[in-house]
Design brief:
alpha+beta, Heat Shock Protein 90, 5-stranded mixed beta sheet, 16% strand
Length: 463
């Protein structure tokens, strides 16, 4: 037998609901029952007191109050010595002794001219009838005991049965409705569970699409958003692996071809030297590509050791210009520096230096024309600091701008890697720039148009 439902939230909600409802019903029923019992007792005592006053008046006039007594009443009249003078309603000697003893106790200090509720008590007789008794001194020589059924119509018993039956019925209906409501409320959770079980690594396109606006709907929307992020992450991972494999396949193929050609037959020293140069170039490209991949992997996983400290962004920009001045000279590009005021930023020097270097190197690669220039400048605003790298290259068409920071994406397909062009890139430089900017709380902005050059600006918000 499967008892798994006993551990479900639905069952626990139902049990808590049942416990709370039962406690409320018990408290309410007890309040109703004891309130009515108190009212019945009060009414019975009032009737008995009035009847006792009438009987006491009759006795003082020397009359036996037969007309005042009813069939179910118990009336006992004793003299001062405890001798029974008149008896109606009981012939049990044991009951007579008990009633006389109790009567003497309650009227011991009582004025015979006064009858009140302090002289009353409730007793169950041998025939299981509930009686209320009152005792009083009628004259100096006599004492009476008057008893009447406490609840002649058993209103308390009938009320107790009604409360028990009504509470049980109410509890049963409430439990049935509670089970239905709990099942209906937890149905979205079951849908989420089934969807989560059905989703695999290769099937992240499924969504819950719950239309409710309650907490479960919010949970489902969060789950859908998480699935969307996971799907995008897996898609990026697949594309990243495919692109990395593609980028590495070309140099490996070239190395294999050059090696096979050199080993196929005897070659001249010049041919061997050319083959080694090609292999060295491809090795340098693969080394650079693997280093870039390692940097991105560490940044993505949060394992990159970031050592933030107060830095001058202008000093970092000058260091990057000095490092790449030889590359710029080789490519006939003039590196210029604009305004470089003291700009303080809390960050990792090596990562920021690489970020600026990648931007400058990107400008050197794609600058065209007779006067090829790349300009670097920094500045500070009210709540931000920035570094800007601009060139007078061919510019980037607007349709390429949204994907410019995608990994391995190259707007100019003609500038893909070539064995004879070691300066060509792999499409990871700008991705590294964006990743470094993000871990420093910055954003990268680009402005470009065909024929008007390109400007990259990295802006960091100040805390």
């Amino acid at each position: 037998m499967n008892f798994s439902f006993l551990h479900s939230i639905r069952f626990r909600l139902l049990m808590w609901f049942a416990v709370i409802l039962t406690a409320v019903m018990l408290a309410f029923s007890a309040f109703i029952y004891f309130s009515q019992a108190r009212d019945i007792r009060g009414d019975a005592l009032s009737r008995l007191t009035r009847k006792a006053d009438t009987i006491a008046d009759d006795i003082q006039l020397g009359k036996i109050p037969k007309a005042t007594l009813q069939e179910n009443d118990i009336f006992l009249l004793f003299d001062s010595k405890g001798k029974l003078l008149y008896d109606q309603g009981t012939s049990n000697e044991h009951e007579l002794e008990e009633l006389l003893s109790k009567a003497r106790e309650v009227v011991e200090d009582d004025d015979h001219d006064h009858i009140n509720h302090d002289n009353s008590w409730v007793k169950d007789l041998d025939d299981e009838k509930h009686y209320m008794f009152i005792a009083a001194n009628t004259t100096e020589e006599t004492m009476m005991i008057l008893g009447s059924p406490f609840d002649p119509y058993d209103l308390n018993g009938r009320l107790l049965f009604t409360l028990f039956l009504g509470s049980g019925f109410t509890l049963a209906v409430a439990l049935g409705g509670g089970w239905w409501l709990a099942d209906r409320a937890m149905r979205p959770v079951k849908t989420i569970t089934q969807t989560a079980r059905a989703i695999g690594e290769t099937d992240l396109s499924r969504r819950l699409n719950l239309k409710t606006k309650d907490e479960l709907g919010e949970l489902a929307n969060t789950f859908d958003a998480m699935l969307a992020r996971l799907q995008a992450a897996f898609n990026r991972q697949r594309q990243f692996i495919a692109d990395a494999s593609h980028e590495l396949r070309t140099p490996l193929t070239i190395v294999n071809l050059e090696t096979s050609r050199a080993l196929a037959s005897k070659r001249t020293s010049q041919e061997y030297q050319r083959a080694m140069n090609v292999i060295q170039s491809e090795n340098a490209f693969m080394t650079h590509l693997v280093n870039d991949l390692l940097i991105l992997a560490r940044i993505d996983s949060g394992q990159s050791a970031i050592q933030k400290e107060p830095l001058d962004l202008s000093d970092i920009a000058l260091d990057a210009v000095e490092r790449l001045s030889a590359l710029a000279e080789k490519n006939n590009v003039t590196l210029e520096t604009g305004e470089l005021p003291e700009v303080t930023l809390n960050g990792d020097r090596q990562l920021l230096l690489q970020m600026v270097s990648n931007l400058i190197e990107n400008g050197i690669k794609y600058t065209v024309g007779n006067e090829r220039r790349v300009k670097v400048e920094t500045g500070a605003g009210v709540d931000s600091v920035w570094v800007r790298v601009s060139d007078n290259g061919a510019g980037i068409p607007s349709e390429h701008l949204p994907r410019l920071f995608d990994r391995f994406y190259q707007a100019d397909k003609a500038r893909t890697h070539d064995a004879e062009d070691v300066s060509s890139g792999s499409g990871l430089g700008l991705s590294i720039v964006q990743s470094i900017a993000h871990i420093h709380g910055g954003e990268v902005h680009v402005q470009s148009a065909p024929g008007e050059g390109t400007t990259f600006e990295v802006k960091f918000r100040m805390d």
